[in-house]
Write a structure and sequence with these properties.
CATH superfamily of the largest domain: GAF domain
Helix content: 40-55%
Protein name: Glycerol operon regulatory protein
CATH topology of the largest domain: Beta-Lactamase
CATH class of the largest domain: Alpha Beta
GO biological process, one term: negative regulation of DNA-templated transcription
Order of helices and strands: HHHEEHEEEHHHEEEHH
Distance between the termini: 54 Å
Number of domains: 2
Structural class: alpha+beta
Function: May be an activator protein for the gylABX operon.
InterPro entries: GAF-like_dom_sf (IPR029016), HTH_MetabolicPath_Reg (IPR050707), Tscrpt_reg_IclR_C (IPR014757), Tscrpt_reg_IclR_N (IPR005471), WH-like_DNA-bd_sf (IPR036388), WH_DNA-bd_sf (IPR036390)
GO molecular function, one term: DNA-binding transcription factor activity
Radius of gyration: 22 Å
Shape: elongated
Strand content: 15-25%
Length: 260
């Protein structure tokens, strides 16, 4: 596999910073990289424009930017997320006998990071590590509904609205209308859009800052998906995601006060 030299050099610059070298001059970076200052300057400016590097205005030295902290938090939160969520997912599955999923957003797809198989229904399409389209899945809809319309339209640029079943959404217009419904309801629904005979409901999970970092869902046979049952499942799922989000540090009471 070919190595892209400029990318490799940029990553090596980031690796120069540690506990003993919190700030570095361009001269020091050039020497350690064995590169001309002009080359290093271009690399630093690129990293700086993307907030991976910042420059101390007082002494001109460079240091790591907050973007790395943000990226690192994504990794850590995903690891913590599964550990925190697991007991709540198991409890929900035990209560309902349904299959419960935990999914995160990866580009234009949702990715299953955990699954608790229920005794009441076997869900064929889901397995840990599998990607699921955002337009046909309840989890996908919940994962993007918190974003602005402009962010969603940018996300789905070039997206293929493939019909997996007769009930699948097949256009951007339909998808945006569905997202608006999710925002109003506070949950999302997959009505046999991924797998015939299976209905799925999903609710988002939030981190300490209130950002949606995942979605939890439950799947049930369509024959058992009465309006009363779906309402019951949604309420149980909301309580489950409330507990997960709260354990991750999200303060629902504070969030309510800030909205007033």
């Amino acid at each position: 596999m070919p190595i892209i030299q400029s990318v490799e050099r940029a990553l090596k610059i980031l690796d120069l910073f540690d506990e003993r070298s919190r700030e570095l001059t361009i001269t020091v970076i050039s020497k350690r990289m064995d590169l001309h200052k002009s080359t290093v300057h271009s690399l630093l400016k690129t990293l700086q424009s993307n907030r991976y590097i910042i420059q101390n205005e007082e002494n001109g030295k460079y240091m790591l930017g907050l973007k790395l902290f943000e990226r690192g938090n994504v990794v850590v939160s995903n690891l913590d997320l599964r550990t925190v969520a697991r007991k709540h997912l198991e409890m929900l599955s035990d209560t309902t006998n349904l299959t419960v999923h935990l999914v995160i957003l990866d580009g234009q797809y949702g990715v299953y990071i955990d699954k608790v198989e229920g005794s009441g229904v076997t869900v064929v399409y889901s397995r840990i590590g599998r990607r699921v389209p955002i337009h046909t899945s309840a989890v996908g809809k919940s994962l993007v509904a918190n974003k602005s319309n402009d962010e969603i339209k940018k996300l789905i640029t070039g997206y293929q609205f493939t019909k997996l079943t007769e009930k699948s959404i097949n256009s951007q217009e339909q998808f945006m209308a569905e997202v608006e419904k999710v925002r109003l309801m506070g949950y999302s629904l997959d009505n046999e859009e991924n797998e015939p005979g299976i209905v799925c409901v999903a609710v988002p999970v939030k981190d300490y800052s209130g950002k949606v970092i995942a979605a939890a869902s439950m799947s049930t046979p369509v024959a058992k998906a009465t309006s009363e049952k779906l309402e019951e499942y949604v309420n149980l799922l909301k309580q489950c995601t409330f507990n997960i989000s709260e354990e991750l540090g999200f303060n629902y009471q504070k969030a309510k006060l800030l909205k007033k």
